[in-house]
Design a protein that fits this description.
By secondary structure, the chain is an alpha+beta fold. The chain contains 5 helices and 5 strands; from the N terminus they run ββαααβββαα.
Length: 231
């Protein structure tokens, strides 16, 4: 979530727009089920409030110039300042370190496009701070879209993880079925071999039985002949 958003003129660091979450809102956000479930802990350093970070941002604006990097990320305690400079205007957001840098800069690019379209020609003519404070209405809208987009990405990531788990489970099932099929195939081959052996043994037994019968008949016939010959 964008905890602090500010827009300033680069040439002299004059704040043009500023919006932020108050300390109580940030503490409630840190304890919300959504943040706890996603391990997003918005820490506060001892004795430091959101106003301290706002003052840091103002000092940063005064140090920026025309030769400063067009975009940069600066660490400040448990947070990061991401800023974007376009058309001599600096757009800055403060987010938790775990927050997506890509989403943060997409947010700043959106603000830069909208702000320049509405106030670009008047930026160099104003002399009082926060001359375009009404732009806060659009910032709140952009912040909501940013939050919704992040939730959608988290939801998609969760769905992808679920699909991956299902795919692994299906592959395991297939492998398990393959093992079972292999065992069945082995058993079938063994049965086939046993069946062939049984047929072969049966034929041999039939031959032996025929030989035994023939020998018995021959013996009886020989005894019969000898009996009548002797008489």
């Amino acid at each position: 979530m964008a905890l602090l958003t500010m827009i300033a003129r680069v040439i002299d660091g004059l704040p043009l727009v500023g919006t932020m979450q108050d300390d109580e809102q940030v503490r409630r956000l840190a304890l919300s089920p959504h943040c706890l479930a996603n391990s997003q802990n918005f820490h506060f350093q001892s004795g430091r409030s959101i106003l301290d970070y706002q003052n840091q941002a103002k000092m940063l604006f005064r140090k920026l110039g025309t030769h400063s990097p067009a975009r940069s990320s600066i660490e400040t305690g448990p947070y990061l300042f991401h800023y974007l400079i376009e058309n001599d205007v600096c757009y800055l957001v403060m987010v938790d370190k775990m927050y997506s840098k890509r989403l943060a800069f997409n947010y700043l690019e959106d603000l830069a496009q909208e702000f320049h379209a509405n106030y670009g020609r008047r930026v160099n003519s104003v002399t009082r701070p926060y001359a375009f404070i009404e732009f806060d209405v659009y910032i709140q809208k952009a912040k909501k879209q940013l939050t919704d987009r992040r939730r959608n990405i988290s939801s998609i990531n969760t769905q992808l993880q679920d699909v991956q788990r299902i795919m692994v489970q299906n592959i395991d099932d297939v492998l398990q079925r393959g093992t079972v099929l292999a065992e069945l195939d082995t058993k079938t081959q063994n049965l086939s071999m046993m069946s062939q052996k049984y047929k072969k043994d049966a034929k041999m037994l039939n031959r032996k039985s025929m030989y035994v019968k023939a020998a018995a008949v021959g013996t009886i016939f020989l005894v019969f002949i000898l009996y009548f010959w002797v008489l």
